[in-house]
Amino acid sequence: MRIVEEEIARAPGDMDVQAWRARILEWSDKLAEAEQQYLQILRIANKDPDNWMGLGNVYLREGKAQEASRALDTAIGLDPKRADLRMAHGRALAAAGDLKGARLEFQRALSLDPANQEVRIAQRSVFGEPKNELCVGQEDNAFNFLNPNYDEWLNLQTQWTPHWSTTFVGNFFQWGPAHAAKFQASVGGQLPKWGGLTVGGATAHDSGVIPKTEAFFELDRGLKISETRFIRGLEFTYEQHWYWYRDAKVQALAGVGLIYLPRDWTFSIGVTEAQATFPGLGNQWRPSETARLAFPIISREGKQLSGHIFFATGIENFASIDQIGSFTSQTYGGGLKFAITARQSIGPYASYQKRSQNRNDTNFGLNYGLRF
To answer: Fewer CB within 10 Å, N- or C-terminus of the chain?
Structure first.
């Protein structure tokens, strides 16, 4: 400010220097003084769109959204091909409650400057965070000891409030001659100091290959460590899941520890202890472990590609009858996730499971997600 005041003393009629004084007043949060400074400038230099944009930005910070919109509309009238003016006008319209007009202005700004990430961020802000996420997928399992299995699924998750959500899942199976279907529903709650709790269940047309009914609950607790240390945060999950088949019962106890690392890398370790009860065979407890590493690959112009790899030993999927017998296994797998836009993603994945008794299972899958 001292330098600017000296320049004004040398050339009091230089409106560019006067405009710099107004900007410094705004940066110093002296908004009323900045407003008066811009009004004085515009009495003399009212053909400069930068002065109108400066006044509009001050009005916006003062909470005068309508006045800001009018000032920025004047600036656009002087130079309609400037993306920064369009973006500023869009923000003023959004603050005034005219979301339709704001979206239109942000779109005009993008057409003038397609590489402007700031405009894209502002554009997403007026749409608001989507509450729903719909995922659909297809999964194929090729075995060396029986016919292939196919599974299609649909998942709808709705975040009703910042603390409550619901999830509905439909699965459709074609396992050799058997056709089965399952419907699962759950509700989740989030408490700031206590973490998350999810409770749900499932019912099915089982055809003898999947559980007739299921019930489960999951506890989740996260802990932020630091923004600068190697370990940024920790998250712990505990789940109990019950599966009831026609002639068998399985209870699975699972715990997962997730570590948040720099640059959006994550590493998790999970342990599951399962108790299977068969008629005439009593109870059998079987452990399994899994480790998973997720990492970003590339991020460019709003599009992101990430991946993950995992290894598991003794892992068993207790939602299918072929998995609850007595065998050991090692599974290797991984996948990709390509964020086409902020609201759409597609993800292929694959795994290979080597079982005892010289058996194996090769799995391929593809899912598509849409947020709205």
So the answer is: C
